[in-house]
């Protein structure tokens, strides 16, 4: 989980360094650098699908993950975006148990 959190934070700092923060989902025009809860939700979904599932194979269940994402601007703040999510990690395969039956 720490690797997922660290990756998200590093990528967000890199991609959204000079962006503004808006509480609404208006169309600010092509090429505008305005962060909104919807934009960040899309960012999380993209990372989950492309990086955590396909590239690194750390996570699974994309549809389940989408339902867990909650993004909002902190009440009383114009600069803080808060999110919560529940990545569904893939476990390590160690043991295969089988039963062989003769009839």
The overall pLDDT average reads 92
Oligomeric organization of the protein chains: single chain
Helix content: 25-40%
Low-confidence stretches: none
Gist of the model:
The protein has 103 residues and is α+β, with helices and mostly antiparallel strands. It has helices spanning 2-15, 37-55, 62-68, and strands at 20-21, 34-35, 59-60, 70-73, 81-84, 88-89.
Structure characteristics:
103 residues; alpha+beta; two-stranded antiparallel sheet; 3 helices; two-stranded parallel sheet
Can you describe this structure?
The chain is α+β, with helices and mostly antiparallel strands and 103 residues long. It has one domain (2-89). Helix content is 39%, strand content 16%. It contains 3 helices and 6 strands, in the order αββαβαβββ. It has a two-stranded parallel sheet with strand order 1-2. Strands 3-6 form a two-stranded antiparallel sheet. A two-stranded antiparallel ribbon has the order 4-5. Strand 4 and strand 5 form a beta hairpin. The longest helix has 19 residues, at 37-55. The mean pLDDT is 92.
In terms of topology, how is this protein built?
Layout: H1 2-15, E1 20-21, E2 34-35, H2 37-55, E3 59-60, H3 62-68, E4 70-73, E5 81-84, E6 88-89
């Amino acid at each position: 989980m720490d690797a997922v959190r660290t990756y998200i934070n590093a990528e967000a700092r890199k991609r959204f360094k000079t962006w503004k923060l808006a509480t609404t989902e208006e169309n600010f025009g092509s090429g505008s650098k305005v962060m909104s809860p919807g934009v960040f939700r899309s960012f999380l979904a993209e990372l989950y699908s492309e990086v955590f599932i396909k590239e690194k194979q750390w996570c699974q269940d994309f549809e389940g993950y989408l339902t867990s994402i909650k993004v909002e601007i902190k009440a009383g703040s114009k600069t803080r975006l808060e999110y919560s999510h529940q990545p569904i990690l893939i476990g390590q395969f160690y043991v295969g148990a089988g039963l062989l039956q003769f009839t």
